[in-house]
Amino acid sequence: MQVTETTAEGLKREYRVSIPAKDIDGKVTSKLTEVGRDIQLPGFRRGKAPLPVLKMRLGKSVLGEVLEETLQESVAKTLEDKELKPAMQPQIEIGDYKDGGDLEYTMSLEVLPDFTVMDLATIELERLRIPVAEDVVDRAVASFAENRKESEPAPDGHEAAAGDIAVIDFRGTVDGEAFDGGTAEDYHLSLGANTFVPGFEDQLIGAKAGDRKDVKIAFPEEYPAETLAGKDAVFDVTVKELRTSKLPEIDDEFAKSLGAEDLNALREAVKADIEREYNGVSRTRLKRDLLDILADGHEFELPPGMVEVEFEAIWTHYEERKAQDRLDEDEKDKSEDALKAEYRDIAARRVRLGIVLSAIGAGQDIEVSNEELNRAILREAQNYPGRQREVMEAYQKNAEMRDGLKAPIYEDKVIDYIVELAQVSEKDATLEEVIAGAEADAAPAAEAAA
What we know:
The protein has 450 residues and is an alpha+beta fold. 47% of the residues lie in helices and 20% in strands.
């Protein structure tokens, strides 16, 4: 095999590779001989067909296999011999191949840059601890009680108030004509929940059981049903019953109904859940600060192809959100040229950080184990009730999907390693302070920069 370097510009490399015809012919003969041991051709006993007959019958298909194998092997050997670290899959362009001739092709690739990882022990980080206040636990437990509240008939003469449930019959009309979906009987309407058209529930406040009244409302201009959007409507409403909400007592019995041993155990479990959530918020802030330091602390040439692929992924996501009218306000105010320039910077940052984290991980032999990957697949499958087996099988069959799950696990393991080496101080902060700080420091179009 002859390898000639034709381009060496920055991170771009190009090689012309030539594999002699005799090497290919030798491999074809060897594979035909191997195949011939188990094959039975008409007129010959199994394994006894002569080589010329095998070449005539199987030569083309075997040659195709040999060329593919030779191509893969020669690419791998060239990368190894030249000590190349490709940034992406090399691009192969095969020349005009003729049966019996040399195999010649051009291999183009971008290589990863050489750089020195900064001294990780010099990194200074601040971990923000968010203590869980008792009133936060109180509100969380109270929300459980709110979700389990029951209703009971209101006393005679009770006037409807926010929080009550009004059992009503209603018939809505527009210009005197009833419309689809505008009629119901025994409908349980939670007053103050704002589940109906704005203004409807407010007009029932103060009503009593047995009252009948006209509720006049104006459908919003943006109402989903085009036939009703912007129209005035009148609802003939009969209040058949009023029910008041009754919250359960927050005591040991209530805690047991939720699976806890007693109220104290419930509060401790709730507090632990909140702490885990707060720790996640704090870690996100710490990780972002660390990534900022790593990005600023490493300057090297980036493989253009990697940046372009990352940019295309970001821009595709932007166009999808634009089509769904989910753009941030600052994105709506910018031209596409300005956004593209911004997103190219984000793509470059992602690529730089990916290269740095990969280099650190490789230097410490950090890997994602099969057990860690399988746990991630199981967690992902649990997001699809009833389809868990289908999802798990899809991941088992698709290497690209598995890589998509491995990447964040690998990144977190490398981050953990760096944090262990770094100088980390701790400081108490409120949840609002941590979130406000993250929002203030976040790059524009945070969704694309995540």
